[in-house]
């Protein structure tokens, strides 16, 4: 379907479905390990899984029960414990957190009350509830933490706790695709003012002029990245941003996170299993510095955020910007690898039905894609409903990622959706594609 209109029944069903789908995934991610794994900190970069679980419930209580429903606080003493800005991740295990059984009971109690609120609240009269925004915001928040918890599962040691079917193979024509496509210069509409559940940093829609450029038809594969590795890319300062080069030397980096050499082969660890690095999958678990270094080595560069969005959304025939590369319809299984349906990226060249008008594939799903751009507000940006979602992160410290990964639910992934992270981050499900300037006519 296209972006929902204002029919309250349709919006209520959409909100209910999004909340229930997120909760089913949360239960999967927290129910597949024992209490010891739930309360352990598997990496100082991540929270204990039980913190994420209770934080999900606390945010839902604050926004949907209190702010939308007007309820009194159920557990006000939990607010500071589960405030992500008060406590860095490395310090959270020392907090008096809810034990797993208590956390489950709390989030279930909140959810039962929220569904009652959802049944009764008018979807008009307040910006927070217009078109069901607050419910969509909380569904996206839970799915974002589900992705974070999946990252924790990747970082934890021990037997794999999760399973999923294999993604589809590359399309038969993948080997014949051009390596890059030309995106003609000109204006396009970036961002959105119409998507009802778009978050504040995606707004407002505005015009951008982008000069002509070429962009990779496919994400950079493991096989392509391995050529950079074996050409001594991690030992040559020419390709690296100065801070990236410092990271390489300080941490003795030689390959993407979770890769290791065994004799003449490269292996990787994926959700507890060790396997040969598949050459035809998009490269995964690389930092922005690694992505930029590869691009420099290849004689190319990372696309800017505006270039990425134009390649993903702009239809040169109609001149309009689509919701997704394939059009305005919500993502379906034939379009993209989303929603933890598979636990790995699909081979490069998969999902031909998800291609953009110019034939660029896998712009949505599989791997988040680093861009060259800093995370900055759009012209006319207005923080809503709180500054801490986006505004406090604006600046040169964070780089923008686009497109979503196999770990992202469709509710939290659109052609306008903006993710951001520190350029050193490697544990996230991030890869990239490259671009280059078009020669002047």
UniProtKB/TrEMBL annotation:
Residues 178-436 form the Sulfatase-modifying factor enzyme-like domain. Gamma-L-glutamyl-L-cysteine binds at residues 89-92, 421, 425. InterPro entries: CTDL_fold, DinB-like, DinB/YfiT-like, EgtB, EgtB_Actinobacteria, Sulfatase_Mod_Factor_Kinase, SUMF_dom, SUMF_sf. Keywords: Iron, Metal-binding, Monooxygenase, Oxidoreductase. Its cofactor is Fe(2+). Its EC number is 1.14.99.50. Residues 19-149 form the DinB-like domain. This is Hercynine oxygenase. It comes from Streptosporangium nondiastaticum.
